[in-house]
Design a protein that fits this description.
688 residues; alpha/beta; 5-stranded mixed beta barrel; 5-stranded mixed β-barrel; 28% helix; disordered C terminus
Length: 688
């Protein structure tokens, strides 16, 4: 049985694919688009771009500031960039990155004074561009013999440094020979600049030509890399160079039983496919003929808007090729593949996939039909969205765009608009945080005529919150510990979401320590453990406690301190009647003005200052009133008693203690205003 084999690397290389894509994008975005020379050496692509308004120019003569000029993948010399800058035209640089690398090498080595030798065709546009970056002496050579003559002629006994490189599409076998000879010469540096894709393409073509009766090379007749493929394959097999399937007509293939196909870097996938199909037809024409199948395929009708099934035969970065069972070659442009502009074709389909598509355009002259998978997906999505609109169910989608006033969520291929107010995102937070996120939403509006829908993420969140709230009040028990998220902070406390319910932790229940504001303890967004203090199911209010009983400073004080003990304390506030000193966090003892010194004290600040660390004796502990009294004077008197103990009959004249007066019990009370404002009674607050 006859067979046709296509090389794996046939067709667009990375640089060409990028250049063509940039050209088509420019045609859609700008007027007066020009390419400096054909964008690639392929007449079909150039013709299609011309139909879209992209003109080919040979020089910059007549170019104005209103034009958009595309520099093709071959690249240009620096003088062209300078001229374009002076003109002021918009420039789209489609130079292949591998060619750019050669420009950089030539610039650096020529500035260093090296002799530059370039393997390639001096009339090829890529080589012409490379030469433009050589500041000093340079030559272009075609083979190893010419290279060695240049080295001997220009390098005085091999003492002059030489940099040797090649154009990206140079014959790989010739290049290997050049490298072998050049690397043996002192002072010569060889840069391997043959494109890896070119090398692989040539290797595959050589192997394929040795395995088949005939080789078909597809590409532009003026394409350098295509001609090299032809030369390589001609060494092993009968070889033909064609630009498209039409060129196969008239060639006698009656003696051929197997054919290999390779293609230059500028050949689109659809032309390769056409050549493959035509070659297969030619080689099988003498085999058994299935009349019914041929009739069905010949007369199978397609029309714009028809939905058909097809098999994916090829996928690249810009399009998908589909066999829909007719004489046409089907193409799905990237823009018609998915509603998500960020996905690559390879993320959506693979070769061999069977997919449903809608016909969007037919070109019978060229045998091309344009298809859309996106429209099929959108119809499926519309059916799901319509059902959700009718029964109130939830649908799932991915956020693909942030637009003015909201976001776009794609649900099974259909775009659903969600207003900013329905996203559930606060006004001070960017909607960009939702990009690429998978979200659940309700359909709140559907226009069946225009097939447009409006959704709400917030409504789903509200329903989920209501369900959690009901579950909380059903299962919550006073005294139990739950985890929650801090939603908001006020002067009087903190609201914590404990599962659909915002419970209040009052300031006094946050910590045992003295604080100025609840934000000293927690921040919005913190995940904390709280204890349920009280539940009012009728009002929906929940009181919570954050501080832990194990941290109760009065329990710690009771277990570690006793009456008469001397402690080290830090002065935390000064009043007219004394000073408060912190014994441990949460426990402040009062040093009355009469207990500060062993003399009369009229002004506390003359003896103590906030921040001072003093030693004092615990003279009183009232755990019910939570009051501790301290005395510095008692320590001073004890010291005097030890130093100067009086005779038993000697009168001791001591200063009478100041009469007792009503004083605050803690430093916090001392600093509090006379009439403290009432704490708000609200137990819950909307977190929104």
């Amino acid at each position: 049985m006859s067979k046709v084999t296509v090389a794996k690397t046939a067709g667009f290389c990375f640089g060409v694919d990028r250049a063509v894509k940039l050209a088509y994008e420019a045609a859609d975005r700008y007027d007066n688009v020009l390419t400096l020379g054909p964008i690639i050496h392929n007449p079909d692509v150039v013709r299609d771009l011309e139909n879209r308004g992209v003109r080919v120019i040979d020089s910059l003569e007549g170019v104005t500031a209103s034009d958009t000029v595309i520099i093709r993948s071959h690249g240009v010399g620096p003088e062209v960039y300078a001229e374009l800058l002076e003109i002021g035209a918009r420039v789209i640089d489609a130079t292949c990155p591998y060619v750019k690398k050669i420009h950089q090498i030539v610039t650096e080595r020529s500035e260093a004074g090296d002799l530059i030798l370039i393997a390639g065709d001096p009339n090829h546009p890529e080589v012409e561009g490379i030469v433009g970056y050589a500041k000093g002496e340079h030559y272009v050579f075609s083979d190893a013999d010419e290279m060695m003559k240049l080295i001997r002629k220009n390098c005085e006994k091999f003492k002059k440094s030489v940099a040797i490189l090649s154009q990206t599409t140079y014959n790989i076998r010739l290049w290997e020979k050049c490298k072998l000879l050049a690397e043996a010469v002192p002072g010569v540096t060889v840069y391997n600049t043959v494109c890896a894709a070119t090398s692989m393409r040539q290797s595959e073509a050589r192997e394929l030509s040795s395995q088949n009766d005939v080789m078909i090379i597809v590409g532009g007749c003026n394409s350098s890399n295509t001609k090299k493929l032809y030369d390589i394959c001609s060494e092993n097999a009968e070889c033909y160079l064609v630009e498209n399937a039409e060129d196969l007509k008239g060639i006698d293939f009656s003696h051929v039983r197997s054919a290999g196909i390779s293609a230059g870097a500028s050949t689109p996938a659809y032309i390769i496919k056409e050549v493959q199909n035509t070659m297969t037809e030619i080689l099988t024409k003498e085999e058994e003929f299935n009349f019914e199948e041929a009739i069905e395929q010949t007369f199978k009708k397609i029309y714009t808007g028809k939905r058909v099934s097809g098999i994916v035969t090829a996928v690249n970065n810009t399009e998908v090729i589909v066999d829909i069972g007719t004489k046409h070659t089907g193409y799905i442009p990237q823009s018609e593949l998915s509603s998500d502009p960020g996905v690559k074709p390879t993320d959506v389909v693979s070769v061999g996939d069977e997919i449903d598509v809608i016909v969007t355009k037919i070109n019978d002259v060229e045998g091309i039909v344009y298809l859309s998978k996106k429209q099929v997906d959108a119809q499926k999505g519309y059916d799901e969205v319509k059902k959700a609109s009718e029964d109130g169910s939830t649908v799932t989608g991915v956020v693909t765009n942030v637009i003015k006033g909201g976001i776009i969520v794609v649900v099974e291929g259909m775009r659903v608009f969600v207003p900013a107010s329905q996203t559930g995102v606060r006004a001070d937070v960017s909607l960009d945080t939702l990009l690429k996120q998978t979200v659940n939403l309700k359909i709140i509006e559907l226009n069946e005529q225009r097939k447009r829908a409006v959704g709400s993420i917030r409504k789903v969140a509200a329903e989920e919150r209501a369900a959690k709230r009901a579950e909380f009040f059903e299962n919550a028990v006073v005294g139990s510990t739950v985890e929650g998220e801090v939603k908001s902070i006020t002067d009087y406390g903190v609201f914590v979401d404990v599962g659909g319910v915002d419970g209040l932790v009052r300031k006094a229940d946050l910590t045992w320590a003295r604080i100025k504001h609840p934000s000293d303890v927690v921040s919005v967004g913190d995940r904390i453990e709280v204890t349920i203090k009280d539940i009012d199911k009728e009002s929906g209010k929940v009181s919570l406690v954050y501080k832990k009983q194990a941290d109760n400073p009065w329990d710690i004080f009771r277990n570690n301190y006793q009456l008469g003990q001397v402690v080290e304390a830090k002065i935390v506030s000064i009043t007219s009647f004394g000073a408060f000193a912190q014994i441990i966090p949460g426990i402040d003892g009062l040093i009355h003005i009469s207990q500060i010194a062993d003399q009369r004290v009229n002004n506390v600040a003359d003896f103590l200052a906030v921040g001072d660390v003093v030693h004092a004796k615990i003279t009183e502990c009232d755990f019910e009133k939570k009051r501790v009294s301290l005395s510095i004077r008692a320590l001073l008197i004890d010291a005097e008693t030890v130093d100067e103990a009086p005779a038993e009959d000697e009168d001791v004249d001591t200063e009478a203690e100041a009469p007792a007066e009503e004083v605050p019990e803690t430093a916090a009370e001392a600093e509090a205003p006379a009439a403290e404002a009432e704490t708000p009674e609200a137990e819950t607050e909307s977190a929104e």
